Amino acid sequence: MMYAIVDIETTGGHANANGITEIAICIHNGHEVVQRYETLVNPGVDIPVYIQALTGISNEMVRTARPFKDVAYDIFNLLHGCIFVAHNVNFDHSFVKYHLAQAGYDLQCNKLCTVRLSRKILPGMSSYSLGKLCHQLGIGNAARHRAAGDADATAELFTLLLNSDVHNHIPDALKQRSKEQVLPPNLHRKFIDKLPATPGVYYFHDNKGKVVYVGKAVNIKKRVASHFAGNNSGAQRQEFMRHIHQISFQECGTELMALLTEAVEIKRLWPKFNRSQKQLEFNFGLYTYEDQRGYVRLVVDKRRKYSSPVHTCSSLLTGRALLTRLIDAYELCPKFCMVQTNADTCTGTNATQCACSGNETVASYNQKVLNAIEGLKQALPTFAIRDEGRKDDEHSCILIEEGRLYGMGYISHYMEANNLAQLKNYLTPYPSNDYMRNMVITHAEQFPWKKVELVAV
């Protein structure tokens, strides 16, 4: 079995927007290095100043070097048929595979990561970065942050790992069913092994334990594994992978419970890599206010922080349509509701006796507004969704009260759960939002047999 130990220097941290400035390959036969290859590469772009300072590779040094497409044939032939080995292999492999593909070569080979292997074969080291690890092991490197120096050091480290692998971690990692090498470099396999194949929510933590991503799954184990599949070389994914050090989870019984828990946790934890669900999905609300004469007015306006609208809606158009229906049904004034904004005669049902012209008392008009609000509330549903639990002797339960999510939790398999006041004692209240509410209402419409009508006692 032949191994290709690779190290590269680049212009940046992700392959699809950066170039390779230097590459070194040590071909290892399982006992020693039998062939070496190294070359500077013209990346086609300027090398950032801080990378020049780190590597010592300047724009002048690569100006006369060949571009990657001109050395791709040699590199592909060296790597083809070998096990691709590198310290943090996914970084080097993503660059080499991407740039070989740009030159017309499809690199397909198994990978080994000397970071992951070192953690298993040489546990207890204070650091597993290449420089510090080699220093602890007495491996010299006269050209740190240069491809040849780092490749030679990695080759010496790999020889040590091969000779120290009494528990066969290297053969196990190369087995076809093993996904060891696709995992983030800082994530221990034990976190993957603990994941259940059940619905729930999972959390990715950084090196300080802070949650950087929350996700939901029908099958936690399968969904987490999908994050690490493929060879996406984009900046976002590469940064994401580097930040994952631990995984935790909570089982939820059903996908709907997982979806709701995910939404709650994203709002609570505000993880760095969750882009969705961080904005209000429903940005408008139906509000009431009292004017100087004491008339209560209804108006559709943008949602305001810490405000309590009578009703929420997804757009100004939807809100205006709702308000128009209330005007017609409860004989409200279109001018007082800001639906009619011109100075023309009121277009309401009782225009000649309308409040806007002073012909209807404050008490009479305000009662109409209260009736409209009450009618709106009466139309909002109160029900529970009862479904599978985490265990055989329990059910999951989600409560919608007057059109808002009250909370959710787990109840006994034998509990009747049709008494509103009693049910609340078993559920955990959660902050509701329109995304969550609509999710539950839509689910009830799709699966009516899960819906439980409630009795208010």
Automatic annotation (TrEMBL):
**In this protein, which residues make up the domain named GIY-YIG?**
197-275
Key word Transferase present in the record?
A: yes
Look up the domain of life of the source. Bacteria
Keywords attached to this Swiss-Prot or TrEMBL record, sorted alphabetically, are:
Nucleotidyltransferase, Transferase
The EC code for this enzyme is 2.7.7.7
RNA-binding listed as a keyword: no
What CDD domains does this protein's entry cite?
Answer: DEDDh (cd06127), GIY-YIG_UvrC_Cho (cd10434)
One GO molecular-function annotation for this sequence? DNA-directed DNA polymerase activity
Pfam name, any one: RNase_T
NCBIfam families the record matches: dnaq (TIGR00573)
- Please identify the protein, giving its name as recorded: DNA polymerase-3 subunit epsilon
List the taxonomic lineage.
Bacteria, Pseudomonadati, Bacteroidota, Sphingobacteriia, Sphingobacteriales
